[in-house]
Specification:
The complex is a heterodimer of chains A (95) and B (483).
Chain A (H helix, E strand, L loop, with lengths): L3 H10 L6 H18 L33 H9 L4 E2 L2 E2 L6
Antiparallel strand pairs in A: 1-2
Helix pairs in contact in A: 1-2
Chain B lengths: L1 H9 L5 H19 L2 E4 L1 H16 L11 E5 L26 H8 L3 E6 L33 H8 L6 E5 L5 H7 L2 E4 L19 E6 L2 H11 L30 E5 L10 H16 L3 E5 L7 H16 L12 H8 L5 H12 L2 H14 L5 H24 L2 E5 L15 H5 L6 H6 L3 E11 L2 E11 L4 H13 L2
Parallel strand pairs in B: 2-3, 2-4, 7-8, 7-9
Antiparallel strand pairs in B: 1-3, 4-6, 5-6, 5-10, 9-11, 10-11
Helix pairs in contact in B: 2-3, 7-16, 9-12, 9-13
The chains are: A mainly alpha (95), B alpha/beta (483).
């Protein structure tokens, strides 16, 4: 069971603002889902190595070569900045 | 269907421009009801079609996909064409580049008609999580088309596109294909580049086609597969023309495994079960050997999926922070005069522009990965993932493919499951194992169920060995041809 306070803590870690009402709703919904995934505890995984990657590909390397994109592509990246000054992405002060 | 249209194009019975116009006319006629499309490619599609016509007139050889109108799921980036992922946060996002799959079909002169609706960031099994509209099932407008590739499946079946490129993380190609009566092919993990696919769960996501016929699926597959330097998880694949390998193999002696656990659940609609049993009988009559198998860890598949997927989601969704692209409360603050800190921009942008299911999964994943819970949830699920994969390895020593239902039920009513996330998750019960193990799987139509005067399609799923798309395509092709 996930309490309302735990939900708020998680929302804070995930950088999502939630209302009291939402915290209530998420507390119920997330608890239901966590209850469902508890089923995993029944699986015997003694001595089983976890897999993070399904194909087993490891250390895939390629030549470290710069591939130039067109000026159009560069402009379109800049055009997607929510706030910009000249060709810079404008961000609020970090501190 | 693609080959027929191709013949007409090269015999100059029709031009690509005319064909493209016909499809835009069909969209205009049908899409106000079905609502499969989010954005139309009015600007470029006709130019592309005319360029193909010119090649044909000049006697140049053209590819099978050349001049054929298709659609692309809105989680796949298209340069210069708005790509929303079904989310408000990307409502005005115009990608500066093409996904590798889009680049590849464009190199073959495909004509992209537009971008199709989907559950927000592909999270959902009904299409209802789209922030913009709910696509309707063309067979019954009061029902969902399935999801997350709701618009892709609906547009293929309503014939407002010849085929569609979609993505499958836990059944998002196969389940809507099943519910709409289309062919849906989920490829082996690593078969195709994910570059330009807006990531949901990176170790599960794969792009694949939704088509009207098995041959069409093979044609598209041959053109999108392969290693890409921009996706380190893509694998070198044999350069095969899958469409030329169909029908060659003899089905007699083909070993089809039927996992008993997949038929034991209470959730399986008896009418679906009956159609799947008929499909099994048909394969038997065609000379295949039916072998009962057991996949006991399968019962943990859904729980494994709903731990690892939200974990990967919580990480992948971190990029939507209102800073580099997408909607941002920061951009609005100039108008509203609000004085936001950097933190405010993160919190308020994500709260305002991300939908319910997306937030639910982000929080679930954040929890599963947080200190103190990592071992209990994430690590445990990764171990069970290994168990499930091993079980498939063992099963494939005995059989060539594994047959099951695609979805436990036919298309359900709009609104029926949208308030209960857990109930919605159960719609994926037969499709997630292939993603957990990275296997290829296809869903093809195997009959219909009559309900309320409508015929609701049902799909049968076949999972194959890693990188053995050929076997499942062949089995599906023979089934389709002997209909």
């Amino acid at each position: 069971m996930l309490s309302k306070d735990e939900v708020k803590k998680i929302a804070n870690l995930a950088r999502i603002e939630i209302s009291e009402e939402e915290a209530d709703k998420y507390s119920t919904e997330l608890s239901d889902i966590l209850g469902f995934v508890e089923k995993l505890n029944e699986a015997d995984t003694e001595g089983v190595e976890p897999i993070a990657h399904i194909t087993g590909a490891k250390n895939v390397i390629r030549e470290d070569k710069v591939v130039e994109y067109s000026d159009g592509t560069k402009e379109n990246i800049i055009n997607n900045f929510p706030e910009k000054k000249d060709r810079f992405d404008k961000v609020k002060a970090v501190f | 269907m693609i080959r027929d249209l191709h013949e007409k194009l090269i015999n100059q019975e029709i031009t690509s421009e005319k064909l493209t116009e016909e499809y835009f006319a069909k969209i205009e006629e049908k899409d106000p009801e079905i609502q499969a499309y989010l954005t139309l490619n009015n600007e470029f599609a006709r130019d592309l079609a005319r360029a193909v016509d010119k090649k044909i007139r000049n006697g140049e050889e053209i590819d099978l996909l050349a001049g054929i109108p298709c659609s692309v799921k809105d989680v796949i980036c298209t340069e210069g064409i708005r790509t929303t992922a079904g989310s408000k946060i990307l409502e005005n996002y115009v990608p500066p580049y093409d996904a590798t799959v889009v680049k590849k079909i464009k190199e073959n002169d495909a004509v992209i008609l537009g971008k199709t609706n989907c559950d927000e960031f592909a999270m959902g099994a009904s299409g209802e999580n789209s922030a913009f509209q709910t696509t309707k099932n063309p067979h019954d407008l009061s029902r969902v088309p399935g999801g997350s590739s709701s618009g892709s499946a609906a547009s293929v079946v309503a014939d407002t596109s010849v085929y569609s490129l979609a993505s499958d993380t836990g059944g998002s190609i196969r389940q809507p294909a099943s519910l709409c009566g289309a062919v849906g092919l989920k490829l082996t993990y690593g078969m195709v580049s994910r570059y330009g696919l807006i990531a949901m769960a990176s170790s599960f996501d794969q792009i694949g086609p939704i088509t009207k016929t098995v041959e069409d699926a093979a044609i598209v597959l041959s053109r999108i597969a392969g290693k890409d330097r921009k996706d380190s998880t893509s694998m070198p694949t044999a350069d095969k023309n899958y469409e030329n390998l169909l029908g060659g193999a003899n089905i007699s002696g083909l070993k089809i495994g039927v996992p008993k656990e997949y038929f034991a659940g209470k959730g399986l609609d008896p009418r679906v079960r009956e159609l799947i049993e008929k499909a099994i009988q048909k394969y038997k009559n065609l000379g295949a050997e039916i072998i009962d198998i057991s996949l006991p860890s399968g019962e943990y598949a859904l729980a494994t999926y709903y731990v690892i997927v939200p974990s990967e989601v919580s990480s992948n969704m971190a990029r939507f922070d209102g800073i580099r692209f997408g909607q941002s409360v920061g951009a609005e603050s100039e108008k509203t005069g609000a004085d936001y800190t950097l933190g405010d921009i993160y919190f308020k942008t994500r709260s305002k522009y991300l939908g319910k299911e997306v937030k639910r999964r982000i929080m679930l994943g954040t929890y599963a990965l947080s200190a103190g819970y990592y071992d209990q949830y994430y690590l445990k699920a990764q171990k069970v993932r290994a168990l499930i994969k091993k079980e498939f390895e063992e099963a494939f020593k005995k059989v060539d493919l594994i047959l099951s239902p695609t979805s436990p039920t036919p298309a359900f009513k709009i609104g029926e499951k949208s308030e209960d996330p857990l109930e919605m998750y159960l719609a994926d019960i037969y499709t997630v194992p292939a993603n957990i193990a990275g296997l290829p799987a296809i869903s093809i139509p195997c009959g219909t169920i009559e309900e309320g005067g409508k015929n609701l399609p049902v799909g049968v799923q076949m999972m194959g060995k890693w990188f053995d798309e050929e076997t499942i395509l062949n089995a599906a092709y023979i089934f389709e041809q002997s209909a």
